[in-house]
Amino acid sequence: MARAALQWQAELGVSDAVCDAPIDRYEVPAQNLKPSTVVATPAGAIHAVDPVKVAEAAAAAAGDLPALKLALQNFSHCDLRRGARNLVFGGGAAGARVMILEDAPGRAEDLQGLPFAGPAGQLLDKMFVAIGFNRAEEVYAASVIPWRPPQDREASSAEIAMMQPFARRHIILAAPQVVICVGNISCQAVLGKRGLNKLRGAWQEGFSLPVLPMVHPQVLLRQPARKKQAWQDLLMLKAWLHARSEGGKI
User: Fold this and answer.
1) pLDDT for 88-133, tens place per residue?
2) DSSP-assigned letter for residue 145
3) In the β-sheet with 90-92, what is the strand arrangement from edge to edge?
4) Which of 52, 87, 119, 183 is deepest in the core (most CB within 10 A)?
5) Which stretch of 1-10, 12-21, 241-250 has the lowest confidence by average pLDDT?
6) Pairing state of beta strands 209-214 and 204-206?
7) Given pLDDT bands bounded at 50, 70 and 90, which one contains residue 144?
8) How far apart are CA 45 and CA 42, in angstroms?
9) Angle CA 223–227–229, to nearest 5
10) Which residues in the chain belong to E strands, given as ranges?
11) How confident is residue 45, by pLDDT bands cut at 50, 70 and 90?
12) Direct distance between the N- and C-terminal alpha carbons of the chain, in angstroms, rounded to an integer
């Protein structure tokens, strides 16, 4: 009987003896347990962090482009950074007259850590060469969203809002004469409105600078028929720069 009882306890999972002598738990008086004390948190004691306010403070504190890049690297409130390989900050000639701003990095940009990489970047190079520009030496490029969104989805309104202060500061520190926005997100961040098809073809104003909305080179690769629109916009840019250049030279 003792062996059968021991085997039965082993099957129940009993593996250790807790006392030298057995205790009849039915004879042990129940202990009076003290009720747990619940401490009420005063209303308003916990303040939620506003990522937009944090972004505004971090961006405003950056005195130059390297400091702004570091501020973005240390900004922990945007979850897009968790799935991206690299921070895509900027590329080209800082201080150039022309700054081109794209929506968000794609696969090629994420791998290289540079805006407008891959086939889209190669097409953009040809587009600027067509109006007499070397993009690497005479154009500065950046992204509104510096991390690649998962599955290349469009950034949410909250993500755009927290990245807008960095984009604004980026433009101020890069100090271009004109900004080209390629995509709805860049238009939203700089102009406060979307609708690229309606905005392109005419000069806009954002952050006290002339802004020219254009179709992204990636879209032109998928829809070659729209290259005519892009060429018209490039000619507008060339004429604008020509009118403001010394001696009529771009």
Assistant:
1) 999 999 999 999 999 999 999 999 999 999 999 999 999 999 999 9
2) S
3) 90-92, 139-143, 98-102, 178-182, 209-214, 204-206
4) 183
5) 12-21
6) antiparallel
7) very high
8) 5
9) 115
10) 90-92, 98-102, 139-143, 178-182, 204-206, 209-214
11) very low
12) 103
190 phi and psi angles, rounded to 5 deg: -95, -40
Structure tokens at 223: 């829809």
| pLDDT beyond 60 at 140 | yes
**pLDDT at position 35 over 70:** no
Residue 206: how many CB atoms within 10 A of its CB? Answer: 20
The gap from C-alpha 154 to its chain's centroid, in whole angstroms, comes to 10
> Can you tell me which residue has the tokens 């290349």?
152
Residue type, 136: A
Supply the pLDDT for residue 13. 63
Nearest-angstrom CA–CA distance, 37 and 31: 18
| Angle value at C-alpha 70, between 103 and 151, nearest 5 degrees | 35
Q: What angle do CA 106, 111, 112 make, to 5 degrees?
A: 100
Tokens of 113: 């850590």
Nearest to 115 by CA among 181, 196, 189: 181
- Asked if 214 and 233 touch (Cβ cutoff 8 Å), the reply is yes
Q: Is residue 249 predicted with pLDDT exceeding 60?
A: no
